[in-house]
Amino acid sequence: MKFVTKRIHAFLDYPVAIALIALPFLLGLGSSNPLALQLSVATGIAAFILTLLTDHHLGVFPVVPYKIHLAVDLLVAIVFILAPFVFGFEGLDAYYYWINGIAVLTVVSLHKSETAVDA
What pTM was computed for the model? Predict the structure, then answer.
């Protein structure tokens, strides 16, 4: 049951990018490793820029193909799921990355193939 269209995904991108920048500060991430805060903020900034550049209806400078955007999202999901193990994140730091990684992986896996309706 794949239902996340290109249009739905586009509407999710900006709020998610802003959340990745703001939530680490609001939640006080970084207690187990300062990188827990920095990685999320850097990823949020990169996600915002990627969204601006993605070829979908909310892209401002649509130069990055949507399929590349999805591939980057998949890579981010994998990095977020592995980050607690690789960098020794513990407690809230680890849960934050696992939850976000699983959420992004879920969105990518529920992506509905592009059709003329999705554009």
Answer: 0.90
